[in-house]
Amino acid sequence: MGRRPGVFVRPVSMEEGRRLQRISRTAKDAVRLRRAIVVMMSAQGQSVPDITSLMQVSADYVRDVIHAFNEQGFEALDPKWSGGRPRMISSQVREHICLIARTSPADWKISAFSTWSLTKLAEHLVKQNVVPAVSRETLRRILREGRVSWQTSTTWKSSNDPDFIAKMHRILALYDSPPTDGRVVCVDEFGPLNLMPRKGKAWRPHRSPRRLRATYNRYDGVMHMLAVLDLATGKMYYRIRPRKRWCEFLSLLKSLRIRWPGEKLYVVPDNFSPHKHPNVRAWAAANDIELVFLPTYGSWLNWIESEFAALRYFALNGTDHRSHGEQNAAIGAYVRWRNARAEPKTSFAPDSPIRTWTEYPAKAA
User: Fold this and answer.
1) Strand, helix or coil at 3?
2) DSSP 8-state assignment for residue 81
3) Which of 122, 124, 105 minimizes the C-alpha distance to 113?
4) Rounded CA gap, 161 and 12, in Å?
5) Which of 94, 153, 166, 347 has the highest local Cβ count within 10 Å?
6) Could you write out the DSSP letters of every residue in 236-295?
7) Mean pLDDT along residues 151-169
8) Domain boundaries, position 51
9) How far is Cα 69 from Cα 10, in angstroms, rounded to an integer?
10) Res 3 pLDDT > 70
């Protein structure tokens, strides 16, 4: 059998050569890039075996690319995707599958289980004659394309406060336009501060997580942190006590009065009963302190909550303190670091839907 004749690309003009070179440098599609290089190498006089060796492709592939370019020009460089075999499950049936997946087995009088697995859902679809058969992988792809994902249920606690909207707008008004005659501060309790190993994240070698003890005792009890966020400076002040009764809260208010004498204080607390103790209310009214209570189940309106989240993440997560003194020192170090970089607090949830609420939502969104 004789040797097959050499295959080379047709003569390439200077402009076509520049275009091939540009494609070989900038093409993002791997197929287009590879075909352009094959054509350019052939135009430079390299044989099919040479191109095969350098590009690590088959000789038939090189010949097919060269013949296609000779016949079609630059259109031969673009991949022609066939799209695979046609879908066996129509779009309408796929929408129906996604709809059924969003239902509960109880809706179909199935009491044996409360949620669908892919296998159980596939069996149910066959039983309901939605499809003659469907694999778990196909079902997973259908749900993914229909934007139906496996999610954890969440809870919704509805507020029964009839003045929710009025109280919320009062809080937002204090945040947006602090009164010129005083200072707005947010207060809350953080804790309980247990002595226990706390899970956290850290940079570690691959598959070598830091290990913390799983068993512990609470011989030393718990502590509680009473904290204050000053919106004018962005600084946080705190004290740690073994209890969080009305007398501890009143002591905190007295310390604020001493810290900012001569200023009216607008204190934003939640509805924790010690905050509303008659002795607390009476002393606050007599010392130019206005307690602006959050609406019921509206603790997310307290600006200090986000500071607590950061404190927990950076100062406590991933730790295993063996004494309250050690844990309190860690909290104090973080608060000092934070206060050294604090800035005035402005723009509370400027783009949040709560800004447009005219009534409390009746159910979870």
Assistant:
1) coil
2) -
3) 105
4) 80
5) 94
6) EEEEEES---HHHHHHHHHHHHHHSTTSEEEEE----GGGG-HHHHHHHHHTTEEE-PPP
7) 90
8) 14-77
9) 8
10) no
